[in-house]
Amino acid sequence: MVEKFQEFFWKAEKKIQTLDHLVYVTYPLVKDKKLLLKILVEIKEAVVFCINSVLQYEYLHKQISLSKDSKENFKIFREKCSVKYKITEKEIDLITELFNLVQKHKESNFEFVRKEKIVILSENMKTELVTIEKIKDFLLLSKNILKKVKDEFLGKI
Length: 157
Description:
With 157 residues, the protein is mostly helical.
């Protein structure tokens, strides 16, 4: 029987492979800026799969307890799991930035393209910019986290 943590890990791995192809092959061909927003949301999902894999593994081995609240679980991940999996504070900050950017995108009523950037306008007229470079940074983050989780799981799965 496949454990839940394995399922999350494999979903993350598959999603990251697909996203890598989208960023480095598909996007340069089609240059559709809306594709960047879709990729951004999918990268967040891949990172969530990685985090859930870690949380499920640690929960299964009675190292942590989980909450029904995702924010509380992220706090548990940050405080109790990130060091064990060698995830740095800088990476945690980047994960938080990714999550916040996706949230702003979902809440935004207005987004537009300007000079190779997607501008996300919030209710209070604050802007957030999404560029291909920022997407590549987030993709690299997801790959690094996946690798660190994989390195920790090796020999355990």
